[in-house]
Amino acid sequence: MITETKKILEGVKNGSISVDDALLKLKTEPYDDLGYAKVDLHRKIRQGAAEVIYGAGKTPGQITGIIDSMLKHDQKQILITRLSPDSADIIKKEYPIMYFNDASIAAIGEFPEPDGIGKVVVATGGTSDIPVAEEAALTAEFFGNEVTRLYDVGVAGLHRLLSHSKEIMNASVIIAVAGMEGALASVIGSMADCPVIAVPTSVGYGSSFNGLSALLSMLNSCASGVSVVNIDNGFGAGYLASRINHMEAKK
Question: With contact defined as beta carbons under 8 Å apart, do 132 and 152 qualify?
């Protein structure tokens, strides 16, 4: 991944940024202490992607305070996950957020043009898995990835998935989102030649134990190349997919 630090140093090398400006960017205070939150201002320099706001459990006032700090420190694109519709309505009065109801995600600033090495495919076992899948897909798009959505292609009707073999085999990263027994990840893993990120969801009847059955099934996948994130963690899957899709060879 091309980190912000590398971009700054390349800018000094090619003359697009002065040494003093580069030094200022690197010397900027590492975080902004708001009392209730310490906003990480160096995360983009360290990791290539700025801090994301986790909205659940925060008041609208706390979230707007964090947004204000980020904007003041020149973070032009901001992602907020797990944001309730009520909180989104309050925040909209102060900031021009885009709110995506299915995913409970909000964003400030334009989504960038895709610059990943390939496409990220997001597939779901069923329609009920779409909220988690949309969290993954929008996160990946926010970080500059082209995303293909394949929804309701679960193993209960395998022909639905097989009709998308071309998209699966041409993907750079695949996110497989499924509840119940979580079999989708193993099936996709058996077809793809790229990393597969499995996301168990809490969708299912009583013995699915709110996603635990799917989680254990995915962890025990017999398909090689399948990794697993936490239950309903669409954001984590989308973020990891973006990192994989932006990898470059280290020389």
Answer: no
